[in-house]
Amino acid sequence: MANKPVLTDWKTTAAERGWIIPDWPVAERVNAVCTTRQGGVSAAPFDSLNLGDHVGDAADAVAENRRRVGQVLGLPAEPLWLEQVHGVEVATMKAADGIPRADASVALQPGEVSVVSRLAARRSQCGDDCGLPAGFIL
Fold first, then answer.
1. pLDDT tens digit string along 4-13?
2. DSSP letter string over 55-66?
């Protein structure tokens, strides 16, 4: 993937899109962002920044949403996207063969990008107050 950030300060761009940047005590080389539903191209009920390719959204919309996240963040590699199974499995980059069925991933080497997705309830279930993150990228 090796995208170059759109701006030198990716945190400013992420914050402008309404994405959440955790304020936690971690090593300086560790970066995290929690995306929201803002800034993507998916149509309802997935609008707009759906990152899940296994929930019925259009594949081209998901691909564009993932590209946008990678571009804004300047990711050094393609993230290890998961098919969540709501169990206890954890995937590693080295062990991944295709799309892992797991609920967490661990990046063990510099330059690897780990993702944990959290599906938001459909708006029909919670109205416009759905505020759950679309994804969490380390």
1. 444 458 889 8
2. SS--HHHHHHHH
Region label for 86, one of left (φ > 0), alpha (ψ between -120 and 50) or beta (otherwise): left
Question: Does any domain span residue 97?
Answer: no
Residue 16 lies in a domain: yes
What DSSP element (H or E) covers 14? helix 10-16
User: Number of folded domains in the chain?
Assistant: 1
Report if residue 104 sits inside a domain. Answer: no
- In 17-124, beta strands by DSSP E: 33-35, 90-92, 104-106, 115-116
Range of the domain at 36: 1-77+117-138
pTM of the predicted model as reported, rounded to 2 decimal places = 0.77
| Exposed e or buried b per residue across 121-135, where buried means at least 16 C-beta atoms within 10 angstroms of its C-beta | eeeeeeeeeeeebbb
Q: Give yes or no for a contact between 43 and 62, defined as CB atoms under 8 angstroms apart.
A: no
